Amino acid sequence: MFDPVCPSGLSPIRVGDKWAGMIIRCLEQGPRRFSELRVPLRGITAKVLTQSLRGLERSGLVVRTVHAGPPRQVEYGLTPLGRSLLEPMAALCAWTEEHWDELLDAREAETAI
């Protein structure tokens, strides 16, 4: 999913926006700072990451925690509701992997038209 050559956009099922599922998976092991999220999400801009995180916060899936400084640090972590998505997302990833060739074929057939 985080491989740069992986066309994760092929997945027909999305949580939130294009990046939300990958952000949730990045937070699976625990809270991360904004800059730490940008490492595995190489193709995302700061603006889009901010928008995605805000959307996930509004949905109750991610919590933003500000740690008083100096320096002030902000971390993002999964809420219990966000954690409850990990198992269904793992099932969706397994399904996508199982049907990868079919998904690629369908996508190529659509672009050939």
Question: Summary?
Answer:
The protein is α+β, with helices and mostly antiparallel strands and 113 residues long. Helix content is 49%, strand content 12%.
Your description of this structure?
The chain has one domain: Arc Repressor Mutant, subunit A (Orthogonal Bundle). The protein starts with 19 loop residues before the first helix and ends with a helix. The protein has helices at residues 20-26, 34-38, 46-58, 80-83, 86-98, 100-112, and strands at 32-33, 62-67, 73-78. It has a three-stranded antiparallel β-sheet. The relative contact order is 0.16. A hairpin with a 5-residue loop joins strand 2 and strand 3 (73-78). The chain has 113 residues and is α+β, with helices and mostly antiparallel strands.
Question: Could you state the CATH homologous superfamily?
Answer: Winged helix-like DNA-binding domain superfamily/Winged helix DNA-binding domain
CATH architecture: Orthogonal Bundle
User: What are the low-pLDDT stretches, counting only 5+ consecutive residues below 50?
Assistant: none
Task: Give the overall pLDDT as a whole number.
Answer: 85
Which sequence of strands runs across the widest sheet?
A: 1-3-2
- SSE string, helix = H, strand = E? HEHHEEHHH
Count of domains: 1
* Beta-strand percentage range: 5-15%
- DSSP helical segment count: 6
What is the CATH fold-level name? Arc Repressor Mutant, subunit A
Structural class: alpha+beta
Give the tally of β-strands: 3
From the N-terminal CA to the C-terminal CA, the straight-line distance is 28 Å
> What percentage of residues falls in helices of 4 or more residues?
40-55%
How does the major sheet shape up? Answer: 3 strands, antiparallel
The CATH class turns out to be Mainly Alpha
Radius of gyration, in angstroms, nearest whole number: 16 Å
Report the principal-axis shape: elongated
